[in-house]
Specification:
Lipocalin, mainly beta, 51% strand, 384 residues
């Protein structure tokens, strides 16, 4: 925990931010999508929500990483370590934590796997501990007992395709390989190959409680905010008020009541917030992944819902003088706006937060979501 009292008591990033963004983004996308032709039937898609169940547990991994996949004479390096995978969000998502060692030292990463029941596809979102940002998700599905997920990325400033593939699956082993293509998928160059062997008795388990590896010495002079959300861990009674139709002059609000549970993951470098509420605003559930960027000294807040199996646009920011502010830019009703989430006025067992939109570049802000949190005592938070 940070030693300064005004920065010590930080509470969960509001479910409001993510719920409102979800509602807005979903509405905008729905309006933009063409309507299906009358009487046109879509082919039946297989329910794949349990496809990655084989991956649950703790695995010993041996990795070969090719430094330049497009060079026939490229050097390669060998790494070995542990991969821990567990279900989260009532089994609707999978959280993977990786710790390996190689010739260039220790490497840690975090992946969140989400299933989209509308498209019947999986997404994998990946965070490298030292970089602290998240790129575009790998997205795809299982066919013939093999999973292939794809992503567009860059390598040496050139656009490429990336393919992640899970194959040769048995109860106690499987392989993962990542390949690059510079010709639109006509040919693929191997970049990363891993074999995984199950450590016995670990079919479904929490991540091991290993001590975090020390980050490189920071000389930026910026405050270390990695523990800013430590106070959040636990379960909170949540009362929310949401403004219907923001930025239209509306004065109609709806109210919801529910709970938010926050769990520490990745040895405290990230956490998961699970929100569920009901009221005049309907029924809402979401999962929020929040992680710390040790290079920028900022927090990233992102979200998913049961019906949208991908993360959205992250809000980025930090705490100063007892107030946390997190911002992003995104489309709303066809126009780009700024979104601000703020939290303040925190005691040991209560907190308040709000979300606001701005359509004039931050000159004025309209609050559209207000949340009040009260800690539910004697509820274990779990997680590592």
């Amino acid at each position: 925990m940070d030693s300064r009292s005004d920065l010590q008591k930080f509470v969960l990033a509001s479910a409001a931010l993510f719920v409102a963004l979800l509602t807005n983004a979903t509405t905008a996308k729905a309006q933009a999508a063409p309507a299906p032709a009358p009487n046109q039937e879509s082919p039946a898609l297989r329910d794949g929500q349990h496809d990655f169940d084989f991956n649950m547990g703790v695995w010993h991994t041996q990795i070969k990483r090719v430094v330049d996949p497009f060079s026939p004479s490229s050097a390669a390096m060998d790494l070995s370590g542990t991969v821990s995978v567990r279900p989260v969000w009532g089994g609707r998502a999978k959280l993977e934590e990786i710790e390996v060692d190689g010739p260039k030292g220790h490497w840690e990463a975090l992946s969140l796997f989400l299933y989209n029941p509308q498209t019947h596809q999986w997404s994998q979102n990946y965070i490298n501990r030292k970089i602290g940002t998240i790129g575009a998700a790998l997205i795809g599905e299982f066919n013939n007992e093999r999973a292939e997920l794809f992503q567009q990325d860059t390598f040496k400033d050139r656009s490429i395709l990336v393919r992640g593939a899970w194959d040769h699956v048995t109860p106690d082993s499987h392989t993962y390989q990542e390949s690059y293509s510079a010709d639109g998928g006509k040919s693929w160059a191997l970049a990363f190959f891993a074999t995984k062997t199950r450590e016995k008795g670990t079919a479904v388990t929490a991540a091991p409680a290993t001590p975090p590896d020390a980050d490189p010495k920071d000389s930026s002079g910026l405050r270390d905010g990695q523990h800013d959300f430590d106070f959040d861990f636990g379960t909170w009674k949540t009362h929310s008020r949401r403004l219907l139709h923001p930025l239209t002059g509306s004065t109609t609000w709806v109210e919801m009541d529910g709970e938010t549970t926050v769990s520490k993951v990745w040895n405290g470098r990230a956490n998961l917030a699970e929100y569920k509420a009901d009221g005049t605003g309907g029924h809402i559930e979401l999962l929020s992944l929040r992680w710390y960027n040790p290079t920028a000294h900022q927090w990233y807040l992102d979200f998913a819902t049961p019906n949208v199996g991908t993360l959205g646009i992250p809000n980025v920011g930090e705490f100063k003088n007892g107030r946390g502010d997190f911002y992003d830019q995104e489309p709303y009703n066809g126009r780009m706006i700024l979104v601000r989430f703020s939290i303040w006025g925190i005691t040991a067992d209560t907190a308040q937060s709000e979300q606001a939109f701005s359509d004039d570049g931050g000159k004025t802000w309209e609050v559209n979501w207000v949340n009040q949190y009260t800690r539910i005592k004697d509820v274990a938070s779990g997680g590592q």
